[in-house]
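Project channel, design review

CF: Before we commit to the Aggregatimonas sangjinii constructs, I'd like one complete example in the thread so the newer folks can see what an input/output pair looks like. Taking GNAT family N-acetyltransferase.
RD: sounds good, go ahead.
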Amino acid sequence: MMRSTINIRLANENDLLAIETVGEALFDYPILKNRTVEFLNDPRHHLALAFEHDTIVGMASGVHYVHPDKDPSLFINEVSVLEGYQNHGIGRSLVKYLCAHASHIGCSEAWVLTGQENGAAQKAYLAAGGKKEDANTILFEFEL
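CF: and here is what came back for GNAT family N-acetyltransferase:
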């Protein structure tokens, strides 16, 4: 069950200090102020933040994109919840929030990838209404 004091909303530039403060405790790497500002000012990028009072305890980021033969889709890039706040429904709520936002802006679907070994993420995505595909997807990365 989610903690009652958690509020989820989309991030804006007023959240920059809170994002910098939580930093690597929630994000993969140190926060880059110029990239954060760029992200927050790009209308195709979306960052949902979970707050307990004025402190960020969780986040989910995504980008919506269009393609010549498809309606807009939301790719959920990352979901993260601080260790002491995990297993309280915050990750699931962040995913649901991003999906509702994506629907509101006209996306027809949302999708996310995770590793086979990441049981916590799979649990959160299923609880948020996601359906696991049976396909054996292979990820390729390109260093640029």
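RD: helpful, thanks. Strands lie at 6-10, 45-52, 55-67, 70-81, 109-111.
CF: The mean pLDDT is 92.
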